[in-house]
Write a structure and sequence with these properties.
90 residues, mainly alpha, two-stranded antiparallel ribbon, 2 helices, elongated
Length: 90
């Protein structure tokens, strides 16, 4: 399942809302209720609360990696012309 955290949408907000829902379900000992998530390939997934928490944390780790790569490129002097090349990004 791929995460999508497009800046022009509410993806991150939606993910945080689903994370909160998952954490609330876990706090209520409800590990059965499924949470819908539609991924970047437009595939709908039914996740348990623990799976949703795991997915949200992995998405956060990916976003952190993107920022780290961004800062690394930004620190180069001069910034290389191929800064957008896929090999530089996760």
């Amino acid at each position: 399942m791929e995460a999508q955290l497009r800046p022009e949408t509410d993806d991150q907000s939606n993910l945080m809302g689903q994370l909160l829902k998952a954490q609330s379900l876990i706090a209520a000992s409800d590990l059965v209720t499924l949470i819908k998530w539609r991924d970047g390939a437009n595939v709908e997934h039914q996740l348990t609360a623990p799976q949703m928490v795991d997915f949200a944390f992995k998405a956060g780790e990916w976003k952190t990696l993107v920022y780290e790569r961004y800062w690394a490129v930004k620190a180069l002097n001069p910034i290389p012309a191929d800064y957008a090349d896929d090999v530089r990004w996760p």
